[in-house]
Write a structure and sequence with these properties.
With about 260 residues, the protein is mainly alpha-helical. It is built from 14 helices and 4 strands.
Length: about 260
């Protein structure tokens, strides 16, 4: 009988190649994690008007988005990345990622112009001229550019938004238009109103396809998908209150959104 003796004890240091491989694998795993957290392609945007879907895509939690919505309900605006973080409580790392894309109105960055603006808010209107309210849905580009702070680009943006929606149902919708400061919106409200709800084709919530729902300005794809899922599991959606139960629905805009929908 022959006996063989072998020493099966070994030290990790005796296999440098294995250690090197493990180290490289760890780096690869780390890179995969970082890659999975990359933000979608971003363009400049006003952080005051982040929607639920936009916030989700940016990496914000539901609680962080809700804090911003509650803040905005008070008709308040953040005017810097620091204020945005104070309100939402997002992390420093997320703030560093998204704040370079923040675009605040010019008046925020130019206090001198703001002071001049406060002195003459209605520069294009005579002091003695009686203000005649115009239906915002009947307003022309020429009507809009008379408001101090609205140039040709923003007036076209307002008219395009009206066309997309089929018409405005509330002056609150001016807050959804990029580039309008609170002061300019206040001036708009002084001269324009929704004197009559326009006639437009309402969206049939219970019959519309996922694509049709996702094309609605206030829904987008993620929320439209949630609506279709809710509809298939619970039957027809009876009213706007049913929609507010759905994850991601912008509750603060429920009254406005409801006017664009048909629940039959």
């Amino acid at each position: 009988m022959i006996y063989f003796f072998a020493d099966f004890s070994f030290k990790t240091g005796e296999y440098p190649d294995k250690q090197k491989w493990l180290s490289l694998q760890s780096q690869v795993d780390s890179m995969k994690i970082d890659d999975s957290r990359k933000l979608p392609k971003l363009y400049l945007f006003n952080p005051n008007f982040i929607t639920d879907y936009k916030g989700y895509k940016l990496g914000m939690s539901v609680e962080q988005i809700d804090r911003l919505l509650v803040f905005r309900k008070k008709n308040k605006y953040v005017n810097s990345p620091e204020e945005f973080q104070n309100v939402t409580k997002i992390s420093d790392s997320l703030l560093n990622l998204i704040s370079p894309y923040f675009k605040f109105p010019d008046w925020v960055n130019n206090k001198k112009e703001l002071k001049e603006y406060k002195k003459r808010p209605y520069i294009d209107f005579s002091k003695n001229e009686k203000i005649v309210l115009i239906d915002i849905n009947q307003a022309t580009k020429e009507d809009l550019v008379k408001i101090y702070g609205i140039g040709e680009a923003i007036s076209v943006r307002i008219l395009k938004q009206k066309e997309t929606l089929g018409g405005f149902v509330s002056m609150e919708q001016m807050q959804d238009i990029w580039g309008l400061s609170p002061e300019v919106i206040e001036n708009l409200i002084t001269h324009f109103k929704v004197l009559a709800v326009p006639r437009f084709k309402k969206i049939e919530v219970n019959n519309a396809s996922l694509r049709e729902l996702s094309q609605f300005h206030y829904f987008r794809y993620a929320l439209a998908k949630e609506i279709v899922t809710y509809r298939s599991m619970n039957g027809n959606i009876k009213n706007i209150e049913d929609l507010t139960k759905i994850k991601g629905f912008p509750v603060d805009k429920a009254n406005i959104i409801g006017l664009y929908l048909d629940f039959n």
